[in-house]
Amino acid sequence: MDLRPIACIALLALVACGTEPEPTYVARIGETILSKEDFRERAQKLMQTGYKHIEEMNADAKLALLNGVIARELLVREGLRRGLDRAPSIAREVERAEQKGVVSKLYEEEALRGDYASTEEELRVFAKEREYDVEVLSQHIVCATEEEAWEVLTALQEGTPFESLVPIYSTATIQRRFGPAGRLGWFKMGNMLPELKEPLRSMAAGQLYPQPVKTQMGWHVFRLDKRRHLDFATQREWLREKARVQKRADDMEQYIHRLRREYQLEAHAEGLKALASPDGEARLLFSWRGGQLTTAAYWASRQASHSRLDSAARYKAAENLAGIQIMMAEGRKLQYDRDPQVREQVERKRDALIVNWLYRTEGKEVVHQQPITDEDIRAYYDSNVEMFTRADGKVADISLVYDSIGTLLRQQAETKAMDAFIARLREQYNADIEIDTAVLAEVSLPFGRP
Question: Which helix (H) or strand (E) is 327 found in, with range?
Fold first, then answer.
Protein backbone atom coordinates (compact mmCIF):
# COMPACT_ATOMS: atom_id res chain seq x y z
CA MET A 1 0.00 0.00 0.00
CA ASP A 2 1.39 3.41 -0.97
CA LEU A 3 1.46 5.60 2.13
CA ARG A 4 2.73 8.76 0.39
CA PRO A 5 -0.73 10.31 -0.21
CA ILE A 6 -1.64 9.80 3.43
CA ALA A 7 1.61 11.42 4.53
CA CYS A 8 0.99 14.36 2.22
CA ILE A 9 -2.54 14.80 3.55
CA ALA A 10 -1.23 14.77 7.12
CA LEU A 11 1.45 17.39 6.27
CA LEU A 12 -1.12 19.61 4.57
CA ALA A 13 -3.38 19.32 7.63
CA LEU A 14 -0.54 20.47 9.90
CA VAL A 15 0.20 23.46 7.68
CA ALA A 16 -3.48 24.37 7.37
CA CYS A 17 -3.94 24.27 11.13
CA GLY A 18 -0.89 26.44 11.60
CA THR A 19 0.75 23.94 13.92
CA GLU A 20 4.10 25.61 14.60
CA PRO A 21 6.31 25.44 17.66
CA GLU A 22 5.04 27.87 20.29
CA PRO A 23 7.40 30.77 20.98
CA THR A 24 9.49 30.27 24.11
CA TYR A 25 9.86 32.95 26.75
CA VAL A 26 11.16 33.20 30.28
CA ALA A 27 7.92 34.53 31.73
CA ARG A 28 4.57 36.06 30.94
CA ILE A 29 2.99 38.67 33.18
CA GLY A 30 -0.45 39.34 31.77
CA GLU A 31 0.14 40.54 28.21
CA THR A 32 3.79 41.32 28.87
CA ILE A 33 6.09 38.69 27.41
CA LEU A 34 9.61 38.48 28.85
CA SER A 35 11.99 37.05 26.29
CA LYS A 36 15.45 35.76 27.11
CA GLU A 37 17.01 39.01 25.94
CA ASP A 38 14.47 41.12 27.85
CA PHE A 39 15.17 39.22 31.04
CA ARG A 40 18.94 39.37 30.57
CA GLU A 41 18.84 43.15 30.12
CA ARG A 42 16.50 43.80 33.05
CA ALA A 43 18.28 41.36 35.37
CA GLN A 44 21.58 43.13 34.78
CA LYS A 45 19.98 46.47 35.63
CA LEU A 46 18.58 44.98 38.83
CA MET A 47 22.03 43.76 39.84
CA GLN A 48 23.37 47.30 39.49
CA THR A 49 20.86 48.60 42.05
CA GLY A 50 20.68 45.78 44.59
CA TYR A 51 20.67 42.02 45.12
CA LYS A 52 23.96 42.10 47.02
CA HIS A 53 23.01 38.81 48.67
CA ILE A 54 23.62 36.94 45.42
CA GLU A 55 26.95 35.16 45.71
CA GLU A 56 26.67 32.81 42.73
CA MET A 57 24.73 33.06 39.49
CA ASN A 58 22.90 29.75 39.85
CA ALA A 59 19.28 28.72 39.27
CA ASP A 60 18.12 30.22 42.59
CA ALA A 61 19.84 33.53 41.81
CA LYS A 62 18.24 33.77 38.37
CA LEU A 63 14.83 32.95 39.85
CA ALA A 64 15.32 35.68 42.48
CA LEU A 65 16.15 38.19 39.74
CA LEU A 66 13.14 37.03 37.71
CA ASN A 67 10.91 37.54 40.73
CA GLY A 68 12.33 41.03 41.04
CA VAL A 69 11.44 41.77 37.42
CA ILE A 70 7.95 40.32 37.94
CA ALA A 71 7.50 42.42 41.10
CA ARG A 72 8.28 45.57 39.14
CA GLU A 73 5.80 44.61 36.43
CA LEU A 74 3.12 44.00 39.05
CA LEU A 75 3.79 47.39 40.64
CA VAL A 76 3.40 49.06 37.26
CA ARG A 77 0.20 47.13 36.58
CA GLU A 78 -1.21 48.11 39.98
CA GLY A 79 -0.20 51.72 39.48
CA LEU A 80 -1.95 51.86 36.12
CA ARG A 81 -5.03 50.25 37.65
CA ARG A 82 -5.07 53.03 40.24
CA GLY A 83 -4.64 55.66 37.54
CA LEU A 84 -1.31 56.89 38.87
CA ASP A 85 -0.19 57.71 35.33
CA ARG A 86 -2.82 60.48 35.41
CA ALA A 87 -1.58 61.95 38.71
CA PRO A 88 -0.39 65.52 37.96
CA SER A 89 3.19 65.05 39.17
CA ILE A 90 3.64 61.85 37.13
CA ALA A 91 1.74 63.13 34.08
CA ARG A 92 4.00 66.22 33.93
CA GLU A 93 7.16 64.12 33.94
CA VAL A 94 5.75 61.73 31.35
CA GLU A 95 4.87 64.70 29.14
CA ARG A 96 8.43 65.98 29.47
CA ALA A 97 9.76 62.56 28.52
CA GLU A 98 7.56 62.55 25.43
CA GLN A 99 8.70 66.04 24.50
CA LYS A 100 12.32 65.00 24.88
CA GLY A 101 11.82 61.89 22.75
CA VAL A 102 9.87 63.63 19.99
CA VAL A 103 12.23 66.63 19.82
CA SER A 104 15.26 64.33 19.73
CA LYS A 105 13.68 62.30 16.91
CA LEU A 106 12.80 65.49 15.06
CA TYR A 107 16.38 66.72 15.30
CA GLU A 108 17.87 63.41 14.16
CA GLU A 109 15.51 62.95 11.21
CA GLU A 110 14.87 66.51 10.05
CA ALA A 111 17.68 68.77 11.24
CA LEU A 112 20.88 66.71 11.37
CA ARG A 113 21.70 65.73 7.83
CA GLY A 114 25.41 66.45 7.49
CA ASP A 115 28.40 64.22 8.20
CA TYR A 116 29.84 66.90 10.56
CA ALA A 117 33.45 65.95 9.85
CA SER A 118 36.19 68.62 9.98
CA THR A 119 39.50 68.96 8.18
CA GLU A 120 42.62 69.73 10.19
CA GLU A 121 42.63 73.30 8.91
CA GLU A 122 39.00 73.73 9.99
CA LEU A 123 39.90 72.42 13.44
CA ARG A 124 42.75 74.91 13.77
CA VAL A 125 40.46 77.77 12.80
CA PHE A 126 37.76 76.45 15.15
CA ALA A 127 40.22 76.31 18.07
CA LYS A 128 41.42 79.85 17.41
CA GLU A 129 37.98 81.40 16.94
CA ARG A 130 36.50 79.67 20.01
CA GLU A 131 39.59 80.32 22.16
CA TYR A 132 40.15 76.64 22.83
CA ASP A 133 43.87 77.11 22.19
CA VAL A 134 44.49 79.04 25.43
CA GLU A 135 44.04 77.98 29.06
CA VAL A 136 44.07 80.12 32.19
CA LEU A 137 44.64 79.27 35.82
CA SER A 138 42.75 81.63 38.11
CA GLN A 139 41.50 82.01 41.67
CA HIS A 140 37.98 83.24 42.43
CA ILE A 141 35.80 84.40 45.29
CA VAL A 142 32.16 84.65 44.19
CA CYS A 143 29.99 86.81 46.43
CA ALA A 144 26.23 87.01 46.66
CA THR A 145 26.21 90.84 46.57
CA GLU A 146 28.25 93.60 44.99
CA GLU A 147 28.83 95.16 48.41
CA GLU A 148 30.48 92.00 49.70
CA ALA A 149 32.57 91.78 46.55
CA TRP A 150 34.00 95.27 47.08
CA GLU A 151 34.80 94.36 50.71
CA VAL A 152 36.72 91.32 49.48
CA LEU A 153 38.57 93.30 46.80
CA THR A 154 39.60 95.96 49.32
CA ALA A 155 40.84 93.31 51.76
CA LEU A 156 42.88 91.59 49.03
CA GLN A 157 44.41 94.90 47.93
CA GLU A 158 45.44 95.48 51.55
CA GLY A 159 47.28 92.14 51.61
CA THR A 160 44.75 89.75 53.17
CA PRO A 161 45.48 86.19 51.95
CA PHE A 162 43.04 85.00 49.26
CA GLU A 163 42.45 81.64 50.96
CA SER A 164 41.35 83.23 54.23
CA LEU A 165 38.51 85.12 52.53
CA VAL A 166 37.02 82.24 50.52
CA PRO A 167 35.30 80.49 53.47
CA ILE A 168 33.83 83.79 54.67
CA TYR A 169 32.60 85.40 51.45
CA SER A 170 32.41 82.87 48.62
CA THR A 171 29.00 81.27 48.06
CA ALA A 172 28.47 77.71 49.27
CA THR A 173 27.96 76.46 45.71
CA ILE A 174 31.32 77.81 44.58
CA GLN A 175 33.09 76.46 47.65
CA ARG A 176 31.68 72.99 47.00
CA ARG A 177 32.67 73.16 43.36
CA PHE A 178 36.13 74.70 43.57
CA GLY A 179 37.26 74.01 47.12
CA PRO A 180 38.32 76.16 50.06
CA ALA A 181 40.94 78.10 48.07
CA GLY A 182 38.69 79.07 45.16
CA ARG A 183 41.07 77.64 42.53
CA LEU A 184 39.30 76.78 39.30
CA GLY A 185 42.12 74.70 37.85
CA TRP A 186 43.16 75.07 34.20
CA PHE A 187 40.20 76.33 32.15
CA LYS A 188 40.06 76.81 28.40
CA MET A 189 39.22 80.42 27.61
CA GLY A 190 36.41 79.21 25.36
CA ASN A 191 34.75 77.54 28.35
CA MET A 192 34.88 80.57 30.64
CA LEU A 193 31.74 82.58 31.39
CA PRO A 194 31.36 85.35 28.77
CA GLU A 195 31.73 88.19 31.31
CA LEU A 196 35.10 86.82 32.47
CA LYS A 197 36.69 86.28 29.07
CA GLU A 198 37.76 89.86 28.32
CA PRO A 199 39.34 90.47 31.76
CA LEU A 200 41.22 87.15 31.71
CA ARG A 201 42.26 87.74 28.10
CA SER A 202 43.95 91.05 28.89
CA MET A 203 45.24 90.60 32.47
CA ALA A 204 48.87 89.99 33.30
CA ALA A 205 49.77 86.85 35.24
CA GLY A 206 49.62 87.48 38.99
CA GLN A 207 47.27 90.46 38.59
CA LEU A 208 44.14 90.99 40.69
CA TYR A 209 41.28 92.37 38.60
CA PRO A 210 40.51 95.89 39.90
CA GLN A 211 36.70 95.55 40.11
CA PRO A 212 34.08 92.86 40.74
CA VAL A 213 32.49 91.23 37.68
CA LYS A 214 28.84 90.13 37.69
CA THR A 215 27.92 86.75 36.15
CA GLN A 216 24.98 84.38 36.55
CA MET A 217 26.87 82.81 39.47
CA GLY A 218 27.33 86.02 41.45
CA TRP A 219 29.92 88.78 41.87
CA HIS A 220 33.44 87.55 41.01
CA VAL A 221 36.62 88.84 42.59
CA PHE A 222 39.51 87.06 40.91
CA ARG A 223 43.21 86.86 40.19
CA LEU A 224 44.94 85.39 37.13
CA ASP A 225 47.75 83.06 38.15
CA LYS A 226 48.93 81.73 34.78
CA ARG A 227 48.06 81.60 31.08
CA ARG A 228 49.33 79.05 28.55
CA HIS A 229 48.89 78.14 24.89
CA LEU A 230 47.87 74.58 24.06
CA ASP A 231 49.54 72.32 21.51
CA PHE A 232 47.13 71.51 18.68
CA ALA A 233 48.24 67.88 18.31
CA THR A 234 47.54 67.01 21.96
CA GLN A 235 43.90 68.12 21.72
CA ARG A 236 43.10 67.26 18.10
CA GLU A 237 40.55 64.56 18.99
CA TRP A 238 38.93 66.73 21.66
CA LEU A 239 38.59 69.53 19.10
CA ARG A 240 37.23 67.13 16.49
CA GLU A 241 34.41 66.05 18.83
CA LYS A 242 33.78 69.60 20.02
CA ALA A 243 33.52 70.85 16.44
CA ARG A 244 31.16 67.99 15.55
CA VAL A 245 28.89 68.86 18.49
CA GLN A 246 28.97 72.55 17.55
CA LYS A 247 28.07 71.87 13.91
CA ARG A 248 25.16 69.72 15.02
CA ALA A 249 24.04 72.46 17.42
CA ASP A 250 24.23 75.05 14.62
CA ASP A 251 22.04 72.89 12.38
CA MET A 252 19.56 72.40 15.23
CA GLU A 253 19.39 76.16 15.78
CA GLN A 254 18.82 76.81 12.08
CA TYR A 255 16.09 74.18 12.02
CA ILE A 256 14.35 75.77 15.02
CA HIS A 257 14.40 79.19 13.33
CA ARG A 258 13.05 77.67 10.11
CA LEU A 259 10.17 76.00 12.00
CA ARG A 260 9.31 79.22 13.80
CA ARG A 261 9.11 81.05 10.48
CA GLU A 262 6.97 78.30 8.93
CA TYR A 263 4.59 78.33 11.90
CA GLN A 264 4.59 82.17 11.90
CA LEU A 265 5.59 82.59 15.54
CA GLU A 266 4.57 86.02 16.83
CA ALA A 267 5.32 87.69 20.18
CA HIS A 268 2.67 89.78 21.98
CA ALA A 269 4.16 92.74 23.84
CA GLU A 270 1.36 93.29 26.34
CA GLY A 271 1.47 89.71 27.52
CA LEU A 272 5.27 89.77 27.82
CA LYS A 273 5.08 92.91 29.96
CA ALA A 274 2.67 91.09 32.28
CA LEU A 275 5.37 88.50 33.08
CA ALA A 276 7.16 91.12 35.17
CA SER A 277 4.13 91.80 37.40
CA PRO A 278 1.56 88.97 37.28
CA ASP A 279 -1.96 90.20 37.92
CA GLY A 280 -3.69 86.82 37.64
CA GLU A 281 -5.27 87.60 34.27
CA ALA A 282 -4.40 85.21 31.43
CA ARG A 283 -2.72 87.10 28.59
CA LEU A 284 -1.33 86.03 25.25
CA LEU A 285 2.48 85.73 25.09
CA PHE A 286 3.09 84.04 21.75
CA SER A 287 0.87 82.79 18.98
CA TRP A 288 1.59 80.66 15.91
CA ARG A 289 -0.29 78.80 13.26
CA GLY A 290 -2.41 76.30 15.15
CA GLY A 291 -1.47 77.27 18.71
CA GLN A 292 -0.71 79.86 21.38
CA LEU A 293 1.08 80.34 24.70
CA THR A 294 -0.59 82.26 27.50
CA THR A 295 0.80 83.64 30.74
CA ALA A 296 -1.15 80.98 32.65
CA ALA A 297 0.52 78.16 30.69
CA TYR A 298 3.92 79.81 31.14
CA TRP A 299 3.54 80.17 34.92
CA ALA A 300 2.32 76.59 35.22
CA SER A 301 5.44 75.34 33.46
CA ARG A 302 7.96 77.58 35.19
CA GLN A 303 6.50 77.36 38.71
CA ALA A 304 8.95 78.55 41.40
CA SER A 305 11.86 79.19 39.02
CA HIS A 306 10.02 82.17 37.46
CA SER A 307 10.87 84.46 40.37
CA ARG A 308 14.60 83.94 39.88
CA LEU A 309 14.60 85.19 36.27
CA ASP A 310 15.11 88.76 35.06
CA SER A 311 12.96 90.20 32.28
CA ALA A 312 15.28 89.09 29.47
CA ALA A 313 15.47 85.56 30.87
CA ARG A 314 11.68 85.43 31.24
CA TYR A 315 11.23 86.41 27.62
CA LYS A 316 13.73 83.76 26.54
CA ALA A 317 12.06 81.11 28.70
CA ALA A 318 8.63 81.94 27.23
CA GLU A 319 10.02 81.93 23.68
CA ASN A 320 11.69 78.55 24.27
CA LEU A 321 8.44 77.13 25.65
CA ALA A 322 6.58 78.31 22.55
CA GLY A 323 9.34 76.82 20.41
CA ILE A 324 8.99 73.43 22.10
CA GLN A 325 5.25 73.43 21.48
CA ILE A 326 5.84 74.21 17.82
CA MET A 327 8.34 71.36 17.60
CA MET A 328 5.85 69.02 19.27
CA ALA A 329 3.21 70.06 16.73
CA GLU A 330 5.63 69.30 13.91
CA GLY A 331 6.70 66.03 15.52
CA ARG A 332 3.09 64.87 15.86
CA LYS A 333 2.37 65.88 12.28
CA LEU A 334 5.25 63.59 11.24
CA GLN A 335 3.96 60.94 13.73
CA TYR A 336 7.23 60.83 15.68
CA ASP A 337 5.15 60.66 18.85
CA ARG A 338 4.12 57.18 17.66
CA ASP A 339 7.65 56.05 16.91
CA PRO A 340 8.29 52.73 18.74
CA GLN A 341 11.58 53.95 20.21
CA VAL A 342 9.98 57.14 21.51
CA ARG A 343 7.03 55.21 22.96
CA GLU A 344 9.39 52.79 24.68
CA GLN A 345 11.32 55.66 26.29
CA VAL A 346 8.10 57.32 27.46
CA GLU A 347 6.68 54.10 28.90
CA ARG A 348 9.92 53.33 30.71
CA LYS A 349 9.84 56.76 32.30
CA ARG A 350 6.17 56.36 33.24
CA ASP A 351 6.79 52.92 34.74
CA ALA A 352 9.76 54.14 36.78
CA LEU A 353 7.71 57.05 38.17
CA ILE A 354 4.85 54.73 39.11
CA VAL A 355 7.16 52.28 40.89
CA ASN A 356 8.91 55.10 42.78
CA TRP A 357 5.55 56.56 43.81
CA LEU A 358 4.35 53.22 45.18
CA TYR A 359 7.60 52.65 47.06
CA ARG A 360 7.34 56.08 48.66
CA THR A 361 3.69 55.88 49.59
CA GLU A 362 3.11 52.22 50.50
CA GLY A 363 6.20 51.92 52.65
CA LYS A 364 5.93 55.30 54.33
CA GLU A 365 2.23 54.84 55.04
CA VAL A 366 2.99 51.84 57.24
CA VAL A 367 5.66 53.78 59.13
CA HIS A 368 3.26 56.69 59.49
CA GLN A 369 0.62 54.40 60.99
CA GLN A 370 3.15 52.61 63.21
CA PRO A 371 5.89 55.18 63.94
CA ILE A 372 9.27 54.16 65.33
CA THR A 373 9.26 54.75 69.08
CA ASP A 374 11.99 55.47 71.64
CA GLU A 375 11.48 51.92 72.91
CA ASP A 376 12.13 50.51 69.42
CA ILE A 377 15.38 52.44 69.15
CA ARG A 378 16.49 51.46 72.66
CA ALA A 379 15.67 47.78 71.99
CA TYR A 380 17.71 47.81 68.77
CA TYR A 381 20.61 49.51 70.53
CA ASP A 382 20.59 46.97 73.37
CA SER A 383 20.28 43.98 71.00
CA ASN A 384 23.10 45.14 68.73
CA VAL A 385 25.49 46.69 71.21
CA GLU A 386 28.47 45.13 69.39
CA MET A 387 27.69 47.36 66.39
CA PHE A 388 28.31 50.44 68.55
CA THR A 389 31.41 49.17 70.33
CA ARG A 390 34.69 50.81 69.32
CA ALA A 391 38.00 49.01 68.86
CA ASP A 392 39.08 50.11 72.36
CA GLY A 393 36.01 48.43 73.89
CA LYS A 394 34.12 51.63 74.67
CA VAL A 395 30.44 51.64 73.66
CA ALA A 396 29.07 54.73 71.90
CA ASP A 397 26.36 56.47 73.89
CA ILE A 398 22.87 55.96 72.47
CA SER A 399 22.45 59.72 72.02
CA LEU A 400 25.20 59.65 69.38
CA VAL A 401 23.57 56.92 67.28
CA TYR A 402 19.91 57.60 68.09
CA ASP A 403 19.04 59.30 64.79
CA SER A 404 20.89 56.78 62.65
CA ILE A 405 19.13 53.86 64.38
CA GLY A 406 15.78 55.56 63.84
CA THR A 407 16.54 56.02 60.14
CA LEU A 408 17.62 52.37 59.82
CA LEU A 409 14.47 51.09 61.53
CA ARG A 410 12.25 53.23 59.32
CA GLN A 411 14.00 51.92 56.23
CA GLN A 412 13.59 48.35 57.43
CA ALA A 413 9.91 48.93 58.16
CA GLU A 414 9.36 50.46 54.71
CA THR A 415 11.15 47.55 53.03
CA LYS A 416 9.12 45.02 55.00
CA ALA A 417 5.90 46.84 54.08
CA MET A 418 6.83 46.83 50.40
CA ASP A 419 7.70 43.12 50.51
CA ALA A 420 4.26 42.42 52.00
CA PHE A 421 2.60 44.66 49.41
CA ILE A 422 4.36 42.87 46.53
CA ALA A 423 3.39 39.49 48.03
CA ARG A 424 -0.25 40.59 48.01
CA LEU A 425 0.06 41.69 44.39
CA ARG A 426 1.71 38.38 43.51
CA GLU A 427 -1.25 36.54 45.00
CA GLN A 428 -3.78 38.88 43.40
CA TYR A 429 -2.32 38.49 39.92
CA ASN A 430 -1.13 34.90 40.31
CA ALA A 431 -3.31 33.61 37.46
CA ASP A 432 -1.65 36.07 35.06
CA ILE A 433 1.89 34.94 35.85
CA GLU A 434 3.57 32.13 33.98
CA ILE A 435 7.23 31.12 34.40
CA ASP A 436 9.09 28.71 32.13
CA THR A 437 11.92 27.39 34.31
CA ALA A 438 13.38 25.44 31.41
CA VAL A 439 13.81 28.59 29.33
CA LEU A 440 15.09 30.46 32.41
CA ALA A 441 17.80 27.82 32.82
CA GLU A 442 18.99 28.55 29.27
CA VAL A 443 19.66 32.22 30.03
CA SER A 444 23.28 33.02 30.82
CA LEU A 445 23.89 35.97 33.12
CA PRO A 446 27.33 37.39 33.93
CA PHE A 447 28.05 37.47 37.65
CA GLY A 448 29.36 40.63 39.26
CA ARG A 449 28.49 44.33 39.08
CA PRO A 450 30.01 47.20 37.14
Answer: helix 311-333
pTM, two decimal places: 0.71
Q: How far apart are CA 366 and CA 416, in angstroms?
A: 9
pLDDT in tens, 216-230: 899 999 999 999 999
Cα separation of 261 and 190, whole Å?
A: 31
Torsion, CA 42, CA 46, CA 48, CA 50, rounded to 10: 180
Binned at pLDDT 50, 70 and 90, residue 81 comes out as: very high
Apex CA 385: angle with CA 380 and CA 391, to 5°?
A: 145
Specify the pLDDT at position 325. 95
CB of 143 closer than 8 Å to CB of 152: yes
Compute φ and ψ for 114, nearest 5 degrees. -95, 175
Number of H helices, E strands in the chain: 17, 10
Q: What is the rounded distance in angstroms from the CA atom of residue 426 to the CA atom of residue 55? A: 26
Which residues 6+ apart lie within 8 Å of 50 measured at CB? 68
Count Cβ atoms below 10 Å from residue 12 Cβ, excluding itself: 10
Q: How many CB atoms lie within 10 A of CB 20?
A: 8
Q: What is the pLDDT of residues 144-158, one digit of tens each?
A: 999 999 999 999 999
Domains of the chain: 22-62+370-450 (no CATH), 134-229 (3.10.50.40)
> Taking Cα atoms as reference points, which of 23, 27, 21 lies closest to residue 441?
27
Q: Give me the residues paired with residue 229 across strands.
A: 134
One-character DSSP codes across 102-168: HHHHHIIIII--S-----HHHHHHHHHHTT-SEEEEEEEEEESSHHHHHHHHHHHHTT--HHHHHHH
Indicate the Cα dihedral angle 98, 100, 106, 112, nearest 10°. -160
Nearest alpha carbon to residue 288 among 326, 245, 345: 326
